[in-house]
Amino acid sequence: MKNREIRLKQNPAGVPKDSDFELVETELQAPSEGEVLVRNHYMSVDPYMRGRISKGASYADNWKPGEAMRGGCVGVVVESNAAKLRAGDFVVGEKGWRDYYVTRPEKVRVVDAEAAPVSTHLGVLGMPGMTAYVGLMKLAAAHAGQTVFVSAAAGAVGSLVCQLARDAGCRVIGSAGSPEKVAWLTNRARVDFAMNYRESSNLVADLKTAAPDGIDIYFDNVGTDHLEAALENMAMHGQIVCCGMISSYNATEAPAAPRNLSHIVWKRLRLQGFIVSDHWEHYDTFISEVAPRVRDGRIAYEETVVEALENAPRAFIDLFSGSNLGKMVVKIA
Ligand SMILES: NC(=O)c1ccc[n+]([C@@H]2O[C@H](COP(=O)([O-])OP(=O)(O)OC[C@H]3O[C@@H](n4cnc5c(N)ncnc54)[C@H](OP(=O)(O)O)[C@@H]3O)[C@@H](O)[C@H]2O)c1
C-alpha cells in the first residue's frame, strides 16, 4: 500500500527551514505474522528532535539526511496479525512523521481512548508530562513552602511543572514569551507570578522582585540567560533541575551565558541534569497521580494542533519561536 513519510533532507544550519525536510511517498508492506498495521492519528514535535538532526554530538544517535524522522505518535491498529493487539486498539509508538507503520506489539503501548483524548498521551499524560513529574517530584522532591521558578512555563513540560509545584504547596514563578502565555499561567495554571521574558529589560531584577527570598528550585527548560538570572537569584542550598536548554539548540556559536557559575559554590547549589527515558519506572505512579487530576480539571492543559502531515516540519520549526501554547501536536488523521 502507499504511505507517506517526512524525511530529513539535510542537517539544518541554525534555525531549521522547511527545505531541510521532504515529504516522500513510499510503499508499505502488509504486516507479517506477529505484526500490526497502525494508522497514525497524531504525532508529536519536540525540541529534542533538534539535537537528533544535528551533525554534532548529543545524548543519542543522530538521524541522517535521507532517513525518515521519528518520534512519539498515537494511532489506531487497522490490521492485526498479533494476538496481543486487536484492530481498533489505540497505541502510542515512536514512528511519527508518517501516515502508517508496521510494528510489533512490544514496540507500542496500548492507551485507553475513552479515558482521555488520545493526543494527551503525547503531552500532559505522555513523555512531556512524565518529564515534568520526574524532574520536579522525584529528582527535586518539591515540597510545601519552597519557591519554584519554571522557564518555558507555558509549554508542554513547563505547564505541568507549574501546576505540580502549585499543588505541592510551592510558590510558583513562571516565565514565558507572550502576554497570552502570561495570562494562561496566571488564570489557568494559577501560578503566583508570571512574567514575559521578551518584555523584560532585566531578567535578574524581575526575578528578584518575584522571589525576594530566593529560588529553592529552578526547573530549567531554557538555559543561557534564564539560567544566568536564576543562578543570581538562587537561595542557599537550592536545586537546579536541568531539563533542557532550548535557547541554545539552534546556536551556531557557543552561548555567552551563564557567566556566573560561581554561585553554584557560594550558595552550595545542586544541579542535576536528567533524561526522562532513564526514569520510565515512574510511569505508573505518574499516571495514577496525574491522570485523575487532568480528568477532573484540577490540572489544566493546552494543545496547539497543526493539521496535516505535510505541515509537521513547520510545526516543529515553530517550537523555536514559541508559537505553541502547551503541547504542539500534528493531527494526521
Ligand atoms: N530532559 C528530558 O528528558 C526532556 C524531555 C522533554 C523535554 N525536555 C526539554 O524541556 C524543554 C521544554 O520542552 P517542551 O517539549 O515542553 O517544549 P515546549 O515548552 O512545549 O515548546 C518550546 C517552548 O520553548 C520556548 N522557547 C523557544 N526558544 C526559546 C528561547 N530562546 N528562550 C526562551 N524560551 C524559548 C517557547 O516558548 P516561549 O513563547 O515561552 O518562548 C516554546 O514554546 C526543552 O528544553 C526540551 O528540550 C527535556
How many domains in all? Answer: 2
Rg (C-alpha, Å): 20 Å
CATH architecture of the largest domain: Alpha-Beta Complex
**How would the global form be characterised?**
globular
By CATH, the topology of the largest domain is Quinone Oxidoreductase, Chain A, domain 1
Which percent band covers the strand fraction? 25-35%
Name the CATH superfamily classification of the largest domain: Medium-chain alcohol dehydrogenases, catalytic domain
Could you give the order of the helices and strands? EEEHEEEEHEHEHEHEHEHEHEHE
CATH class of the largest domain: Alpha Beta
Q: How does the helix and strand content classify structurally?
A: alpha/beta
Helix content range:
10-25%
Hetero compounds: NADP nicotinamide-adenine-dinucleotide phosphate
Distance between the amino and carboxyl termini: 17 Å
Number of strands: 15
How would you name the oligomeric state of the polypeptide chains in this document?
single chain
Residue-averaged pLDDT: 97
Main beta sheet strand tally, sense and closure? 7 strands, mixed
Low-confidence residue ranges: none
Q: What's the tally of helices?
A: 9
Overview of the structural elements:
The protein has two domains: 2-123 and 302-331, Alpha-Beta Complex (Quinone Oxidoreductase, Chain A, domain 1); 127-277, Rossmann fold (3-Layer(aba) Sandwich), CATH 3.40.50.720. It has nine helices and 15 strands. The chain has helices at residues 49-52, 127-139, 156-167, 179-187, 203-210, 224-233, 262-266, 283-295, 312-318; strands at residues 2-8, 21-27, 36-44, 73-80, 90-93, 100-103, 109-111, 147-150, 171-176, 193-196, 215-220, 234-242, 270-273, 303-307, 327-331. Strands 3, 4, 5, 6, 7, 14 and 15 form a seven-stranded mixed beta sheet that branches. It has a six-stranded parallel beta sheet with strand order 10-9-8-11-12-13, sandwiched between helices. The protein has a two-stranded antiparallel ribbon with strand order 1-2. The protein starts with a strand and ends with a strand. Bound molecules: NADP nicotinamide-adenine-dinucleotide phosphate. NADP nicotinamide-adenine-dinucleotide phosphate binds next to helix 2 and helix 3.
